[in-house]
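Weekly puzzle thread! Below is a chain. First person to post its structure in token form gets bragging rights.
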Amino acid sequence: QVQLVESGGGLVQAGGSLSLSCATSGTLFGFNTMGWYRQIPGKQRDMVATINSQGGTNYADSVNGRFTISRDHDKSTVYLQMNDLKPEDTAVYYCNADALNINYQRGTYWGQGTQVTVSS
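Winning reply:
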């Protein structure tokens, strides 16, 4: 059963913008920190941006000033606005959440990922 679903990825020219969203299912609740990570095949999955339950944010140096993470607390949804995209931003972007499942077990959950490709 899918519990986190990313959307909004696609192909964009350098300098363009994309907005990603991560929708959560009713099988998860009690969300704490949520975030976006990205991965190129053969490399580790790296943090892009995180946002905690108080709205505090962290950004990777490579995206700071260009990307903005935000959170819809009522719908337990997290967003990533990506501006001034560069070819080096090309990767699969994954949503991450610290949450409880229906059995009140807290864990870290991942979405299936959405591809972002930036052409030069």
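Puzzle host: Confirmed. Bonus trivia for everyone else. Residues 31 and 74 are 11 Å apart (CA to CA).
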